[in-house]
Each structure stands twice: as C-alpha cells, then as structure tokens.
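Q: A reviewer asked whether we had any structural model of the full assembly, not just the individual parts. We don't, so I'm hoping you can provide one. Inputs are below.
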Amino acid sequence: MSRPPTNTPAPPGALAARLRRSRAALGAVLGLGIALLALLPASCGRAPGTVAEGGAIRFWNGFTGPDGATMERMTKRFTAETGIPVRMQIIPWATYYDKLTLSLAYGDAPDLFVCHANRIAEFARYQVFAPIAPLLAADPSFDVDDIIPRVRSAATYCGTQVALPLDCHPQGLYYNARLFREAGIVDAGGRAAPPRTLDEFLAAARRLTRDEDGDGQPEQWGFAFTWLRTNWITFLSQFGAGILTPDLSRAALAEPPALEATRLMRDLIYRYRVAPKPEGIDAWMGFRQGRVAMAIEGIYMISSLQTQPGLSYAGAPVPRFGPNPGVWGGSHMLCLPRDLPAERQARAWRLMRYLSDHSLDWAAGGQVPVRRSLLRTARFRRMTVQYQFSHQLPYVVFEPPSPKSNEVTPFVDSAIQAVLLGIQSPRAAAADASRRINQVLERP
Amino acid sequence: MSASLSSARRQEAATGYLFALPYLLLFLVFMVGPMAYGFYISLHEWHILGRQKPFVGLANYRALLADDLFGIAMLNTAYFALLTVIPGNALSLLLAMGLNARIRGETALKTAFYLPVVLSVAVVAIIWRWAYSTEFGWINHYLRLLGLPPAAWLNSPKLAMPSLALMSIWWGAGGQMLIYLAGLRGIPEELYEAAMIDGAGARARFRHVTLPMLRPTLLFCLVMAVIGSSQVFGQSYILTAGGPLYSTLTVALYMYQTGFSLYRLGYACAVAYALFVVVLGITLVQFRLLYARREGEAR
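A: Here is a predicted structure for the entire assembly that you could use as a starting point for your response.
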C-alpha cells in the first residue's frame, strides 16, 4: 500500500476525519507549549539569602586539588564539633568566578565563599560583600590584630574590611637540592645553599645550566620562568615598581624602575643564558623532572612536588634581585554576600572563625597561615618550605587593589610574554601595555 | 459544501500553525528575544554586578572603533577563515571525489573521514594539544626523527593560528565531504558521457561539468564555512586562550572574555552585533556573487 503524496488534496470527509484525529494531538501540543511556558519562571533564580535546605551553610570554593580534600576534612570536623552542617561546593577556578558572579548578581549566592585577594576590589566596588566589622565586634575573643597587617589590608576596600584572610600564598624559590650538591653549591655543612643575592643567583644558575652535548640547547637549566605575570610582579616589586602607580590611576610599567626589572628578566634568557625562552617548555614540569634547578613559584605548588618520586626539592625566600625585598603573593579570602540574613551570617562566621583558627591544618596542604600566633608554633616550623616562604610575609606584594585589576592583567601577561620571547623590547612592550591599561583605567 | 471545505482548510492551517507553535515559542524566547535584548544591552554600560546600567547610546560601538584588540581579533578571525575555508573545502571536495569513484572500502573510509565530526571541540582540542605538545607531541617526535627542529606549535605567535586552522580542517572536513559527495552523486552521468564524447579530459570534465553542477553545493558549503569560521571560539579558548600575544584572539573569544571574564556585557553585546553585521555582509556578498553568475549563465 503506497502512501499518497503529502500535497494531494484530501476529500472533505477524509479532511474532517484528519481534523478530528489531529484534535487529540493538538491538545497534546498545546499542553506541551503551556508546560514549557510554565517552566520558565521556575528557572529564574532564588532571592539572595534564601535559607538553604536543612539549614546547612552553603560554602563555595575552587579547591579542586588535594586542598579540596583538606578543606572537606576541616568542614566535617567543624560539623562534628558544632553540629552545624556544611554543604560545600567545589567549582573549578576556571569557571568559579562566572558562577559566583552570576549568583551574586541574580540570586542564589552561597552563605560563604572564597575570593582571591586580587579580585576583592573588583567585587567590593559593586558592594557585593557584607562588611566583616559587625561580626568581629560580636566576637571579641577573635583577635583581628593577630592577622598579618599586609594581608589584612588586602581584605579591605575603601577602609572597610570585607573579608577574612584564610591564608597567604607567596612565591618563593624552589630549588633542586641534589643538583645544587652535585654542582658544589653547598654551605660549610655540605648542604645545598640557595642563593640570596643576584650575584649568588647568577653564579648558581650558570653552574647549574648544562649543555652536555654542546648543541647549544642545554639539557639542564639553572632557572626557568613559570607563571610570567607573578614572576614579573616579584621582579618589579624588588625594584620599587609595579603594574600601576601607587594611586592606581595610571600604568607604571614604562617607568625606569619597571624597565630595569624587566630588562633583568630578559637578560636571564638572552644575556646570561641561564633560563629558556618561555616557549614550548613546561617550566614547572621541568623542575619536577630535575631538568630545571630553580623556579620561583607559589607555595601551593608544593603538593605537586610531594608526589614527585625521587625529587630532592627545598624552598627558600626569593633572592634579592633589586634594591628592595619583594615577592608576589595571593590570598584566599573568606567572604559573605551582602544580603545574607543576620542569623545566617552568624552561622557562617562560626565556620570562618573555625577555618581561621585551624589554618595550620590548611597550611599543611601548601599554604602559609596569616595568624601570627600560628606562624610561631613548632608545628608550623616543621612545615619546612612553608616556614621558609613565610619569612617573606612582611614584604609580600599583592596585585594592585584596583577594581580594574582583572581587566588590566591580560595586558600584563602579553607584555611580559612578548619581552621574554624576544618579540618586543621591554620599552616597547611596556608602552603598548601601558597604553591599553590607561585606556581601561580612564573608562568610568 | 465549498464553505465547509474552506472552513476545514482554515482549521487545517490553524492546526499547522498550532503544531509549529512550540517551536515558534522556543524560537522567540531563546533566539529572537535574546537577540533583541542583546541589542538593548549593547546600548548600555552594563556590568553584571552594577546596580545602575546607564544608557550610553552608540558609545559601545564607537569604542569598538578605537579598540585595537577588537581590530586584532577581527584580523585574526579573517586570517582563520582564510586558512580554513578554501583549504578545508578543497580537501572535502577532494575526499568526496575520491569516494565518488566507487572505490573498495568506501563505507569504511567514509566513516573514518566523518568520525572527527562527531567529536566535540573539547575532545578534539585535547587530542591536538597532545599532538602539538612541544616536548611530548608526536608531530615534533617525527620531526626530530627526520632531523628537523621541533616547533612550538601553540606557543609561537606565527604558528599558533595555522595550528588551530589545521586542527579545524581535520575536525570539519568529513562533514562537508558528505555534502559534496551528495552533490556529486546528483550530477547526471550523461553529462560526463557527453563531455567524454566531445573529447573532454578529466580536468575539463571537472571544470565544465562538475564545478558548474556543484555550484549550489559549493555555495552552501562556503557560506556555512565562512559563518562557522567567523564564530571560531572553542579551539582558541581551550588551546591558547587567545595567545600567544593575541595571535589567536578571535572575535568570538574576545566577546566571551569581555562578557564573562570582565563582565562588561554592554560592550560584549556590541562586539557580538559588530560580528553579526560583518558575517551578514559577507554572506550576502557570497550569495550575490554565486547567484549572479548563475543567473548570467541562465540568460
């Protein structure tokens, strides 16, 4: 039986029958349409500060690595000790701020969330944080002066403390102790001796850069740049320079001290030849594999070294490359959303306080606590690399506390990459980046 | 009788519209509505977190003209289109002509060529990230075996975009190959036979029979390829994040970064509309060129 073509006119009777049959289908279609429309309002966000199911504290962070397991253990202990449940959601950092921003803008924000120090000003500008002062006032047993002042100031925007710093993660010098010993860079006791000055650093890097087969491509490098932006900030800070001027109104990358710092970084590759171009080399992997003897990286990278079999690593403060001490650092800040009801704020504060009080547990996973009382403990001194890096806390430098910081850092990344790849001179790269940064800063 | 038939037809038409209603509703709610809202947003200084979203007229569009990164992104997108549209279509046509020769193992080859198309851009990007790895990638491995220096495929400003283009051609060639194959199989055999009787060689048959008969297919594939390459996003987002040195910053990626990293939605919407206008213009030009020639031939 063949089916008639669809464009063949149907007899009136058949048409009526088809219409009758189609009425049932029509009803179904209409029902589906109405159901779809009905779904739309249900997908809209909840109002800010909605009480979470079961009264749990909703806590968002991006700790996807071993630090996530540490944080989960800490929150479980908190629940066991206080009876307050915590519903922690770990979102990869790559998408974390997207989700957090949308929740802060359109509702359904968590009770407590982590914000990096370099994003505080950006969010605080839009008044999304609840001020911490009333909670501190209500909890006089918490000594806020115990927090390292430099880190506490990074949690402050326009004179208002908007977050509680959980940790600090400064950069430091990681070095391969075995390679140092093999190269004879040791102290009187025969232990690997990390460099403390530029001269010592260059001498060590030269001895540790080895071209075994003489093809001009060293198989082992004395040093390698890792995260270019933060490495640059470390060098800049040591020359008294920065990305922005102190009043945050203009770019400062083209000023003489900044150019001096940038030239030194470039010279490590092209003049002293102790570091590879940051092109096609995974510098950190090279350090882990023993093909790079020194790297400047954050304390959070220690967990990747702890799992590297046979690697003899150690940590020390970053050498003095310039006239001033200085090192880039970041910090995880604990924040509350602005519209959180007071009762839920109080419960979230208990968790914040608990995490801060127990931040030595947190530090074990690759962080430096920011409570002076904890930095003095014997337990912290036993965390040898963290302890070494903590010496830098008095002069740690955060990214500029400008609401536009997040907007200008891509220009910073490109500029230092252009210099270290040899594509642009320090002056030209700084000029380009400064022009773009100033355009951003001039915009309201 | 006639009146009742007319009424029945009206009812049938109404039924047709009602059946189309769910799609139309979805189209209005999720396509037309957001597009109109996007244009509205583009006329404002619109930050996701901002309580005030002041109307700024065409200021965002004027700012685009002074934004050198937008210019770089436009040029990069055009460069990507140049690297992918013609070579990609040529490869697809070549593969289709090979398969059209009714060779053995045609189905297996067709499947093999088409397989990359079913992969998502994320999967393709991860596969190629390993292939392009300077230290561990198989491409550099074989270059070394041949005594050639390894290349920094994704880390060199000169090589990054061609590397993304090569990956995209591999990813998409199979899809267009099937369309070309369908086009080729729609060409009547008699035309080739007549051409052969007239003494046309293979090249002449391709030029005077295959290409003219394939023109609608070519138009479709080229238009779709231009639109697709203008919207290139996933490749550079996953593999290079627009770097190194903005060499793979495309318009779609710039729009995403402006909207979802910097939360400047007004400006991001202006970028989107600028891209829309450019793609629309190019598509209209393509239609005009290819159809004008066809109409000329018809006369």
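A: Points you may want to mention in the reply: Chain A has a mean pLDDT of 88. The interface with chain B takes residues 12, 15-16, 18-19, 22, 25-26, 29-30, 32-33, 36-37, 40, 98, 101-102, 104-105, 123, 126, 128, 278-282, 406-407, 410, 413-414, 417-418, 421, 423, 436, 444 of chain A (CB under 8 Å).
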